[in-house]
Amino acid sequence: MNDELPRPFAPPPVRPRRSLLKFGLLIVGLAVAGYFGQKAPRDQHVTLVLGPASDRVIGLEIQYIGADGELARAARMAFEGGAAPRVVSHEPHLADGDYSLRIDIDLREGRRSTERRVTLGGGTTQIDLTGVLSPAR
């Protein structure tokens, strides 16, 4: 006869390979989530400084052109004569990255246009347009 008492059930030992596999999958998942999180559109904050000539501005059009050359976002703002603020805020919903901005400024006496390159990536991006609005132009 066997005099041994039955042993209590014990789970099999965890294999190190399984633990490493789970850890590796977690790291890969976090890396993929981080990558796509940066590529996802989010609210950006852009300020356009018109300065003392803002009283001549009656309209403003902004086009955000992505690195691929495609139009990513456009906005049009109209102001009653003399009511444009000195600093115009705009919050486009765009992914972080480099953009070319085409800016058309409608003045009482005509239209002025300029292009600027910006990198959006959180925080505030400020664009000074006072030189475009100067009377010497």
Describe this structure in words.
This protein is an alpha+beta fold. Helix content is 20%, strand content 42%. The chain has 2 helices and 9 strands. A hairpin with a 5-residue loop joins strand 3 and strand 4. The chain has a domain of 90 residues: Immunoglobulin-like, CATH 2.60.40. It has a 4-stranded antiparallel beta sheet with strand order 4-3-7-8, with no helix packed on it. Strands 5-2-9 form a 3-stranded mixed beta sheet, with no helix packed on it. The N and C termini lie far apart (109 Å). The model has no long low-confidence stretch (mean pLDDT 85).
Quick rundown:
The protein is α+β, with helices and mostly antiparallel strands. The chain is built from two helices and nine strands.
Key terms for this structure?
single chain; alpha+beta; three-stranded mixed sheet; Immunoglobulin-like; 137 residues
